[in-house]
Design brief:
about 210 residues; outer membrane lipoprotein receptor (LolB), chain A
Length: about 210
């Protein structure tokens, strides 16, 4: 299963009640390329009349490349590589632009790349880290350390259980509601989730209170 790319065996999640560190989390999440995982996202914005539910797959075909493939309610592929993002839709010419125009995408690539390579030093060069919870239910908050990204992104918080990353919650500076992306088994458990509250429950389920 594709979800297994972000999950290790239950035997790896020893000492479930022990407090986590950022290093422990990255050690469990590290996965070599190629890998893929399904995602479900419900996006709310002041520019949208109703919440938009997206589903698809994240792929990391090789180091330094991140692909976000939306499959529903439309088909769109975003490939992030070498400081650029290319967006492709059927019937339209591909559109390529610099990540300098979209620092949130650059931050997504940096965080995903560092997470899946287990590179704590690289992650700490871009974000200030704060871990919370236990090995059974944990969170890792990433606060941008660079002004350019901090002008757009407040925090990126990862939620997981044992060795599985289940959710990424991104808080943008100019949006009152966070954007939550369910991954792996959390995405597979949400085939009929259509509202932001349902996504939030799956995202935060079992995570220690702050």
């Amino acid at each position: 299963m594709l979800a297994s790319a972000l999950a290790a065996t239950a035997a790896e999640a020893d000492k479930p009640g022990e407090a986590v560190t950022a290093g422990w989390i990255l050690g469990k999440l590290a996965q070599p390329a190629p890998m893929a995982t399904p995602f479900v996202e419900v996006r709310e914005s002041r520019m949208l009349k109703n919440a938009l539910r997206l589903s698809g797959e994240y792929r990391r075909p090789q180091d330094g490349v991140l692909v976000r493939a939306v499959r529903d309610p439309y088909v769109e592929t975003t490939t992030i590589h070498a400081g650029q993002a290319t967006i492709e839709r059927a019937g339209r010419a591909p559109r390529t632009f610099s990540l300098a125009r979209a620092p949130e995408l650059a931050g997504l690539q940096d965080s995903f790349g560092a997470l899946l390579s287990g590179d704590l030093v690289a992650l700490e060069s871009v974000y200030r880290l704060r871990s919370d919870g236990t090995r059974q239910h944990w969170s890792l908050e990433l606060t941008p350390a660079e002004d350019e990204l901090a002008r757009r992104v407040q925090t990126i918080t990862l939620y997981g259980q044992d060795a599985e990353l289940r959710c990424i919650e991104t808080r943008m500076v100019d949006e009152p509601q966070p954007q939550r992306t369910l991954l792996a088994s959390a995405a597979e458990a949400a085939p009929v989730v259509v509202d932001a509250d349902g996504v939030a429950r799956l995202c935060h389920r079992g995570v220690a209170s702050r």
